Amino acid sequence: MSFIRTHTKLLLVAASCAILGAGASAIASAGAATGASSATPKRAALLAGPRRWAARAVHGELVLATKTGFVTATFDRGAVQSVNGQVLTITEGTKAKTYKTVSLTIPGGAKVRDDGKPGTL
User: Fold this and answer.
1) What pLDDT, in 10s, does the model give residues 17-51?
2) Which of 37, 79, 80, 93 is the most buried (most CB within 10 A)?
3) Which helix (H) or strand (E) holds 45?
4) 114: which residues sit within 8 A by CB, 6+ positions away?
5) 8 A C-beta contact, residue 68 and residue 103
6) CB-based contact 44:56 (threshold 8 Å)
């Protein structure tokens, strides 16, 4: 008897495994080519506009929904002219142009940030 006749089942199992492995490899490589890399630039492009606007913002007021209701968050960007107790006077704008000068009364429990870090008055 020949080798093929005596080991027919073994050869069929080996051939099936080879075919399944090749098919799985082809599917995996095709799936990897159309993965998240094409979605990333689209998301970055969608967020580029709002980020640019936020980076150039001088004054803003946001109403945010929380679990217990709504919270109003205000931000002002500019240079501090003076601090007198809880009153903060700011020149809003850029180094080249002034938008306006405002005096803000800061409540006792307010979170104050200076260059993104927690600050105090």
Assistant:
1) 566 566 666 666 665 555 555 556 676 666 666 66
2) 93
3) helix 39-56
4) none
5) no
6) no
Residues 6+ apart with CB under 8 A from 112: 106, 118, 119, 120, 121
How far, in whole angstroms, is CA 3 from its chain's centroid? 63
pLDDT band at 65, cuts 50/70/90?
very high
Positive or negative, the CA dihedral 96, 98, 99, 105 is positive
Distance from C-alpha of 12 to C-alpha of 81, rounded to nearest angstrom: 85
The structure tokens 């700011």 sit at 90
What count of residues does the chain have?
121
Query: Which helix (DSSP H) or strand (DSSP E) does residue 83 occupy?
Result: strand 78-84
Contacts of 80 (CB under 8 A, 6+ apart): 88, 89, 90
In the chain, what is the straight-line distance between the N-terminal and C-terminal CA atoms, in Å?
96
Alpha-carbon distance of 121 to 113, in angstroms, equals 10
